[in-house]
Amino acid sequence: MFINVGIYDEVRKGTDKVMGSALFEIGDVLGSRGSVKAKKLRKGGSVYARVVKAPDTPSSTLTLGMRGVKLTNVDGFFGQSDPFFELSRMNQGPAGESWQVVYRSSHIPNQLSPTWEPAEVDLNRLCDGDLDRSIKVTIFDYEKSGKHQYMGMFETDTSSLIRAKVDGGTRDVKSLDKTKAFHVTGKKKKKDYGKIVVVEATLSQSRSAAPTSTEQYPQAYVPSVAPIPIPFNPQISVAPPQQSNNGPSFVDYILGSCQLSMCVAIDFTGSNGDPRKPGTLHYLNPHTTERVRNDYERAIMGVGSIVAKYDSDQKFPVWGFGAKYGGQIQHCFQVGPTSEVHGVPSILDSYRGVFQTKLTMSGPTVFTEVISLAAATAQSEQDLAQTRGEQAYTILLILTDGAVTDVRATAAAIQRASSAPLSIVIVGIGNADFSAMQHLDDFDANNGAKRRDIVQFVEFSKHRDNKNALTQATLEEIPDQLVEYFSSRGIKPTLARNESQFNIVPDEFNEEMDVDLSIDFNDEGEITLNDDDEQGTHGLYLDDSYNGTNYAGVAIMPPPATAPTYAPPAAYVPPPY
Prior knowledge:
- With 577 residues, the protein is an alpha+beta fold.
- 19% of the residues lie in helices and 26% in strands.
- It contains eleven helices and 25 strands.
- It has helices at residues 26-31, 123-127, 158-163, 250-255, 295-308, 344-354, 368-387, 407-417, 435-442, 467-475, 478-488, and strands at 2-9, 17-25, 36-40, 46-50, 60-69, 83-93, 96-104, 119-122, 134-141, 149-157, 182-183, 195-205, 258-267, 315-316, 318-321, 323-325, 328-330, 333-334, 341-342, 359-361, 391-400, 422-428, 455-459, 518-521, 527-530.
- It has a six-stranded mixed β-sheet with strand order 18-15-13-21-22-23, sandwiched between helices.
- Helix 5 (295-308) runs antiparallel to helix 6 (344-354), helix 5 (295-308) crosses helix 10 (467-475) and helix 8 runs parallel beside helix 9 (435-442).
- The protein is elongated.
């Protein structure tokens, strides 16, 4: 899922000016440290995006009735203000805390002691269901031009609103109980800006759709006094993730301290065919372009980029199996000049580089060693993460033509690895008989000792032309597998970490991905997206290919400063080219 964020300079009597835009993919943001990602704008400045989990507990509706008492008139000597109010929720972001409007009432004409119609607001939208979370009530004087004038505000929380409720049956403001009224404050702290009395504040089960105000205001509305972010206090703790009655979810762990890592294993057995001959699975066209790749390359970029979005440091071990070096068969050898490569395009480069080494594509097809190495690596990273009060989980991506030699031995290796924080995605390349791979996916406790289901099989040819289907097939079981591993061991999600703990490096502006968009309305009232250049070449660009353009400009995060607690079995390192 992509979200385009546009920034505009509002022009009251003219067309709003585009300041820039940034395109974020939810997977990229969720996989970044602290679930925060930043991008630079073309004309300067940066945009920060953060993914937060929507409350998964049943919400209630707050019915709130309020009356104003002697509010300050801001309409001059010859008129009276037309007050309306807004309810705003507090959000935590990279710059600290800020306010977001979630409800706006209708206005009451010419009345400084107004009685507004009761507001009905979904409690999850207002405060994530937290009755003690700060909310803000702001009063404005309505103007047809949209230049509404600020009349004052007060901060409170839902619990305080409920406790402040008094009998509002009387029409006489003088006889109204004001002992629990909220004092409205304005630009001058010492001045009396009036009071707000709560005459109704009840909670009830939410309706299927959140109610909205009956009055429509201009879309370009911005209060004349904009909400000012509160300076961030690093001592303020972040609330723990809310969990449903069914226990924590995948998002709970990812929004906490759980870091996902990916390692890749590639099949170099002879059953793939001679890579020098067109039509074989490893064929490398010497005249290739960025748009012409074999299925292994397409799977690396397609499936690899899907899983890699959740890997925060973008460093991946890449292994091969099924080839001979110096006449000796190697069931697990290092692909590329280093033990880890940076970014998915580097996986592709390392894969291509293997064919420049003195390898002999051979057999048999054996997964057991790469599975054992991945399991040891995964356990080592989790043990290290626990010493820091964090969590780690690893995904092994195996690319193979499907002709596995010993299904029982492979199943036994998977059974042993099921005790590690590991998921295995096996991607079938080509059109071979993948029944053995499907057997590994379906292998469960009935086939042997009790174990966690950690295998997902994906037949690449069925999904290679549909990225959404490929994404769904790849990630279908991983969230449940991760949750099952941690929850079965009593390991709960950690507190959601505040972005101020990270050095968030904004990605550079990407000409292809981050396109400035202007929004306009045609004669029929439909929204249209206008190009911002004379040639009309710009538009919303959605990368639905497998060519890795998403990874241009990705900021590489530093590796852990502490070495793993123990070294897993090492992969064979081929001699230099």
